Each structure stands twice: as C-alpha cells, then as structure tokens.
Amino acid sequence: MGPNLIALAIPLFFVGMGVELAVAKKRGVRAYRLGGAVADIGCGVVQQLTSNLLGGWVTLLAYGWVFERRLFDVPTPWLPWVAALVGVELAYYWWHRLSHEVNLLWAAHVVHHHSEDYNLAVALRQSVTTWATSLPFWLPLAWLGVPVTPFAVVLGLTTLYQFWIHTELIKPLGVLEKWLNTPSLHRVHHAINPPYLDKNHGGTFCVFDRLFGTWEPETEACVYGTTQPLESFNPLWAQVERYLELGRLARRAPSLLEAVKVFFASPGWRPQWMGEAQKRDPAVKYDVAATGPLRRYVFWQWLAVLAGTFAFLMWGLELPLPWKLAAAGWIAVSAAALPGLLEARGWARPLEVLRWVGGAVAVAAFVVSAG
Hints:
The chain is mostly helical. It has two domains: 202 residues, no CATH class; 79 residues, no CATH class. The protein is built from 14 helices and no strands. Helix 4 crosses helix 7, helix 5 runs antiparallel to helix 10 and helix 13 runs antiparallel to helix 14. The longest helix is centred in the first third of the chain and has 34 residues. The chain is globular and about 55 Å long. The model has no long low-confidence stretch (mean pLDDT 94).
C-alpha cells in the first residue's frame, strides 16, 4: 500500500504540539487540558489502527478497481498530478460540506468536532468510519482517469497540511485567506457561533468555499465543540455515540418516512416528536476533577501507549493477523481505560487491571513464540 505518510509524520505532530505548548505558556494562555488531549489523540490512534488494518486498504483497492475501468487516460506525466490536486480538493469540499448537512455523514464527521478546545491535538481527532463516508466522493476521480499514486499522495499531503491549521495561536493571515485554508478560517469551521455554522469546508484551499458561498472570515471569538455536547473523554464512545443516537431516534419515529429522514436530513432538523435537544452552556466546558497522582499516572501511561502505537504502525503491521489484532485490541482498551480513570467511571479500574494483565500475557506469549 506504500508508505503511511500519517504514521511517518507522528513524531512531527508531537514536536508541533510541544512547540504549541511552549508558545502558549510564554503567552500565559492554556492551550491543552489532559482529558481533552487524551480523547483527541485517542480518536486518532483508533482511527489509524482501523485505517491500517482495513479502511486504507479498502479505499485503495476500490480506487484501483474503478481506475482499471476508467473513462479516460490523462495525458502527459504532469497532468495527472494537476487533476489529482484539483479533483481531491473538490471532492474533499463536497464530502466535508455534506458531512455537515446529512445526518448519516455527520455521525462519522462529528467525532472531529466534539472537542471543546482548539489545538493541534484536535487535528488528530478523527473518525474510524470516515474512510467509508468519503470513499464515494473519491471514486469518480478514478473513473475519470486520475491514477492511484497521484491520488494517494495528494490526499495524504492534504491531510498533513490540515494539521497546522488547528491552533488558536496563529492570527489571521490577511490576503492568504482569499486562497488558502488557514488557522483563522478553520477556527470558524470548528466554532458553534451562529454566524460560523457550516462554513469553510475546504481542505488545503478555500477557493471552493468562495465559489459556492460557504466562506466566512473570523470576526468574533470562537466557541468550540458541538451544539449537542458529547460530555465524555472516551474516544471509543465518541466513535459510536451519534450512530446510536440516530438509531434510537429512528426507532421512535412516528412513521417510516420520518425514520428514513432521521438518517438523511440535516443535523439541525428536529421535528416536534423528537422533543427538546440537550442545551449547552457555551461558557462551560466539560471537564473532570482528578487528583494529581492520577493525572500523572494517566499522562505517563498514555505516553507509553503512544510510543507502542507508533512502533506498531511502523513495524508491527507485518506481524501475523492474530498478533496484529491482539496489539490493536490492547491499544484500543488503553484508549478507553485511561480517560475512564480520569472520569472515575466504575468500569475503568477493572479494565485497567485487565489491560495490564492482558499486556503481560501477550508479551510473554510473543516472546515464547519468537523463541
């Protein structure tokens, strides 16, 4: 499948977050909260696991299959790259825009918007089902003759570009915001201020936002998160919560038509039979009161898990399938147990014990099998 650009960039992501922390401290502002950062990075961890074990392969295999049945051959060596650059940006814009306008697509994309902070860790907060919702938007590029390599490289670079725009520390960049997606424009996209809702859907550029009327500059302080708050730091719960809510609403619907509309209407659609939506005080962020020793334990354990995750993504994917699944399962359990400890969930301590025991057994079994 080729090099995983996202996995290769993981050390740079953490260098960037370290720089952001240092600059924020120098300016006397708080950029991160432990629970939020664990949740954000945890979502990225489980997304990368599923992408490397399933989603990424399906995307490229499906794209290659459609490309073999393409309508056209794109001439010259450089034109496929131009077509990929324009095509990926246009497809990304419409996938992103419709992910804010269609409930079923929003159920995947909302994971990226749950955070009530805005920092570089939020860039890593991704959904495990995005590959499935975005695939139909990529396949027309293959059908029109954009080869696999330019598509995959441009898509990877577009994803990497969007890392740096998730920060509050960079001010508006003037004339660049007529063409490029910037931290200021993307802050607007993540905000729930009424003038900002469903704006600035571009990836690398903002040309299509300007063309299709969704461009909005930053004119007031942003309030981040979602209008219906998640109120959890559990990255696994974040992945499924909206899907479960759609299923619950569909079962309550007074008719089959209303049940279908639950999945395909706008997230803002709320008929009378649904009742009142949960209201959020924009001045209050979800947080927990954990002791200093517990916070330090979670912090250092999470760093160890992240180091193991990086090693697994770089070198562990060549392991036999049972070992890959065992490693991915242990990482996923870690992603749930550690924020669960911060939130004092009743199941978190038993799960943490299971995580330690399971990890020790797996390491012992691996050493024996390798010997």
